[in-house]
């Protein structure tokens, strides 16, 4: 039968920055990490060079489900036809990097990879990553 092909799932907290007044969005416009806007947890399916948005949930902040809970809800909506055919690899940044998240991902029979680069992270041969936008967008992957 062989090994199943890998399907990469990306969970990301994305902000749609807003300025001005938006009466229709009411309490959904919040400030989070210094950014004012609509904050979404988005699930992407990665196919080759394509990142396809599959589903999303609105992150409402304090007193509501957090990023981890919203991400797990999104993962549970994946169709069984996908999860049975493929080995699912969930890629996340540290916003989702809690022990509870990884335990529940493993209970779903998925694998998870999390990572982040800071300008103080050691690189190869004792060098440090420069403080550039490119370095901040890069990921140092750690398999759990």
From TrEMBL:
InterPro entries: RNaseH-like_sf. It comes from the Bacteria. This is Transposase. It comes from Brasilonema bromeliae SPC951.
């Amino acid at each position: 039968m062989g090994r199943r092909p890998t399907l990469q799932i990306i969970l990301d907290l994305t902000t749609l920055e807003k300025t001005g007044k938006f009466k229709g969005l009411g309490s959904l416009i919040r400030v989070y990490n210094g950014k004012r806007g609509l904050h979404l947890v988005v699930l992407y399916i990665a196919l080759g060079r394509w990142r396809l948005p599959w589903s999303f949930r609105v992150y409402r902040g304090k007193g509501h489900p957090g990023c981890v809970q919203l991400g797990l809800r999104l993962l549970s909506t994946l169709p069984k036809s996908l999860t049975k055919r493929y080995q699912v690899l969930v890629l996340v940044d540290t916003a989702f990097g809690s022990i509870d998240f990884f335990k529940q991902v493993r209970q779903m029979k998925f694998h998870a990879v999390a990572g982040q680069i800071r300008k103080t992270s050691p690189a190869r041969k004792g060098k440090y990553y420069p403080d550039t936008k490119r370095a901040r967008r890069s990921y140092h992957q750690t398999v759990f």
